[in-house]
Amino acid sequence: MNKFVLYFLMFFVSSNSFAQEFNAEVVVNAEQTNVVGLQVFKTLERSLTEFINDTKWTNKVYANQERINCSFILIISLADADTFSATLQVQASRPVYGSSYSSSIYNYNDRQFNFNYREFQPLNFNPNSFDSNLVSGIAFHLYTILGLDASTFSLNGGDEYHRTAKQIVNTAASGNFQGWKATDGNQSRYQLNEGLISPVFSAFHTVMYEYHRNGLDIMHDNPRDGKAKIAESLNILKEI
């Protein structure tokens, strides 16, 4: 076989077999602003979709079927030049082995998601600097999702991602945006991350693992043991 053709086939197979970590759907809803057809919202939606799906967030290799399905619904209530007031609804799920069912692993309504954005502004993430509340906020949720997803496949497997999310919190706290500090309320990104990394709530990660890996994932082959583990996990969750 011609070497060029062989190289092309190897490249084609490789590029179509492996992907980045996320398969995200992004919706930007600006109905509350009463601004009709403003192109900046469509550009923002497209840019966020590309930012999430095309950025390499970890050093791990993900096959296409391993990408994490998630959705980001950005509801903008006020638009003033390049300043936006908004809330962000984030959801993520992971597939259950041997079934067409997906289990929800993250459902968070971020009510402190104000940001600045200029149309066609590049979206680049650097964990060591705070340049954009939009970028840092999205990255925080992505690493939180990575952490929760990993915890469903191996016990405490998501710790490294929650630590990265913590680094984002610490860096972003230098800005003037809400959600990053201990004083920003019980529903802030700060408090969410504190709960996920606190030893006090270590049982939560155990539940995430047992419920999914030793419960849902074995239902296909061993429904009796799977149901028992699911029930046991839910009982532990009630006590947290």
Cα-atom radius of gyration = 20 Å
Uncertain residue ranges:
1-17
Q: What pattern of helices and strands is seen along the backbone?
A: HEEHEEEEEHHHHH
Outline: globular
Strand content: 15-25%
N- and C-termini, Cα separation:
61 Å
Count of alpha/pi helices: 7
Note the main sheet.
5 strands, mixed
Report mean pLDDT, rounded to a whole number.
91
How many domain regions? 1
Count of β-strands: 7
The computed structural class is: alpha+beta
Q: How much helix is in the residues?
A: 40-55%
What does this structure look like?
The chain is of the alpha+beta class. The chain has one domain. The protein is 42% helix and 20% strand. Strands 2, 4, 5, 6 and 7 form a 5-stranded mixed β-sheet that branches. Helix 3 packs antiparallel against helix 4 and helix 4 runs antiparallel to helix 5.
Give a short synopsis of this structure.
With 240 residues, the protein is of the alpha+beta class. Helix content is 42%, strand content 20%. α3 (133-151) runs antiparallel to α4 and α4 runs antiparallel to α5 (189-197).
